[in-house]
Amino acid sequence: MDPRETADAYRRARRAGDDDLCKQIVGEVTARFATRTTDGTELAALYRANRDTPLAQPNA
User: Fold this and answer.
1) Crossing angle, helix 19-34 and helix 40-52, to 10 degrees?
2) CA geometry: angle at 49 spanning 47 and 52, to 5°?
3) Which of 2, 32, 39, 47 is 20 to 30 A (C-alpha) from 59?
4) How many whole angstroms separate alpha carbon 45 and alpha carbon 39?
5) Residue 26: HSE in the Cβ half-sphere, 13 Å Cα cutoff
6) CA 8 to chain centroid
């Protein structure tokens, strides 16, 4: 998957508060990196998305 697509999907899930999808995306990217089917670019994009995207706020 394109690093931008991965990061965009992660941001959407994070903003929606979908922890399961966030974990799935992280797991898939980590597995691709561990097996060297992707370089560090996708992992770095995911890290930046995690750092820069606030979590969804629960309704108070």
Assistant:
1) 150
2) 105
3) 47
4) 11
5) 13
6) 8
Position of tokens 């998305």? Answer: 49
Residues 8-59 have pLDDT tens digits of: 999 999 999 999 999 999 999 999 999 998 888 999 999 999 999 888 876 5
Instruction: At 26, list the tokens.
Output: 């992280």
Residue with tokens 């974990």, as numbered in its chain: 23
With H, G, I as helix, E, B as strand and everything else as coil, classify residue 7: helix
Residue 23 identity (one-letter amino acid): K
Give the integer Cα–Cα distance in Å for 8 and 31. Answer: 19
Q: Side chain identity at 7, as an amino acid letter?
A: A
Average pLDDT, the chain: 89
